[in-house]
Amino acid sequence: MVQRFLRGWRPGRIASLAIFALLGGLLLTAVPSSPAKDAKDAEKKDDKPKEVGPLPSWPLPLHLEYVGKDGQAAPKKIQDAVKFINQKLEETWKSEKVVPSRYADDHEFIRRATLDIIGRIATPEEIDHFLKDPADKRRSMLIERLLSDKDGEYSKHWANMWSNWLLSRSGVFGRGEYHDEMALWLEDQFASNTPYDKIVRGLLTASGENTKNGAVNFLLAHVGEQVSTKDDPEAVKKDGHFQMVPVTSRITRLFLGTQVQCAQCHDHPFYNDIKQKDFWGVNAFLRQVKRDGTPPDPANGKMMAKPGPLTLEDDADVNVEAKVYYEKRNGVVQIAKAEFLPGDEDKRGRLVGEDGKPVQGIKRREELADYVITHPMFPKAYVNRMWGVFFGRGFVNPVDDFNDQNKPSVPELLDELTVRFKNEFAYDPKELIRCICNSNAYNLSCVANSTNASQDKEVLFSRMVLKSMSPEQLFESLVVATKAESGESKDAKKKAKEDWLDKLIGNFGDDEGNEVSFNGTIVQALMMMNGGDINDAIGRPDKGTVALAMKKHGANQRAVIRELFLATLNREPTAKEVAAVEAKFNLVRPKLEAEDKVKPERKYQDLLWALVNSNEFLLNH
After folding, report:
1. pLDDT for residue 592 is more than 70
2. What is the reported pLDDT for 346?
3. What is the C-alpha separation between 75 and 581, in angstroms, rounded?
4. Which of 621, 473, 506, 608 is nearest to 550 (CA)?
5. Across all residues in the chain, what is the average pLDDT?
6. Cα atoms found within 13 Å of the Cα of residue 60, Cβ hemisphere only
7. What is the Cα–Cα distance from 592 to 538, expressed in whole angstroms?
8. Smallest Cα–Cα separation from 221: which of 299, 169, 287?
9. pLDDT confidence bin for 358, thresholds 50/70/90
10. Which positions ≥6 away from 469 have C-beta within 8 Å?
């Protein structure tokens, strides 16, 4: 199909690439690539001072009714939390002289919420169902349907998200069997709606073989270097089997929003309360971890198709004093005792049993889990991370970097949601999602106005920030848009997803396997445009989106166009878009005209290709 595009793109010939160029322009106007940049560019064009005009009109209030799982009125605790979010943000906007953007229409909302909650775009059938619901309840009813996990998509999506956060995207744990084992364990947790504090406890105290308990892969993935006995035969007995440095910092980043890796070699530069000894004090809780089995090392060419099983256990005969030796910058070696980070009133968790001696074995990690979960930053870090998922940035950004120099943008709101998440919601992830997605701020459009276009206003959440799809969201959305899953087995889809992620992450991942930029760069665009798997899915003659739309609507060209827009962008095409597409369809393409008559589906396949390569498809807005 790509070759056909290029073959037609010559002087005197107009092929499907013209449709792509045309639609690209139209769709870019619908989804601005960078409101802040647009505003800056506009200023450069005219440096003359301008009089400040009247503020944009405040959007009309949304008339929404919040429903619960049973379709009745939502519980009072949810309604009160949503009301507080709305009031606090409105107060902030008015004090900052910011007018919020218009509210997103129903098509924008269902696409956004479906992507955020279950990790893919909506189907035309789901959109139809949504629009048949009562106007004042349909958004809340949609949220409940997505959270119900009827088809397991909610639990699978969040399991994938957390697997990537816990294990990264690179290395033997970032891909393949070990990653899948972790995802399967997490999927069970989300499917049963296990409270967040119990999930974290399960991760920190997991033991056994990873084929039976995927949770152990979190610690096993980040044990770091083995303790060497080259210079000291007693080193393992004294210091433990592994240095456990990577997992020390990962625990505090993920669960407390605090980057203690900055304190590994010196006192924390941006957190006055955290010293170098604090990093090693946390590290000491983990020094009795033992691993049976050795994961393959891709760097040494020892990667295998199916890595062998690994077992995590605790060795109570090593590091019995719960001490770690570390070196200061001046070369002085000091000792850190197992002691957790400062918390309320600078209280610290110390690893000391009733007999006054350090506890041993699994009890040591259980103590660590207690200190993590009861730390005041534990619920706050989670609320901030979840807010960042749904709004494109947290109250503190990056979401895992709270420090004295990086203060929350709306601290009262973050503090209140933290208290409610812990005390009223009992660490229930779904309750927090209900509050966020039912709020006025989550219902706002991404289109900026003159008061909130600049990047520094993003911290006020007066408009939705454009979010790039994750690789997984993009894959699942392409599958939905092209109906590629209709003829594929479960194993075939899994293999296709693995191949897709390998290619995309290979181009856009960093050295830790985290996504860096999936925002329509040239490399990504070329990969999308030239992807044989995408073109194959679009060109399917039987169960693909085009084939089914033509079978459903016959010769009704506008109905087919409408179906393709709904399948990809989750919205109706505008009259301008329909007219432009039809005009291109009607143009004569000299040597291709005969082929078009024999293959009428060609023009629709070209349109579908253009739509899935547009910014409006690639971005979550």
Report:
1. no
2. 56
3. 47
4. 608
5. 83
6. 3
7. 19
8. 169
9. confident
10. 115, 477, 518, 618, 619, 620
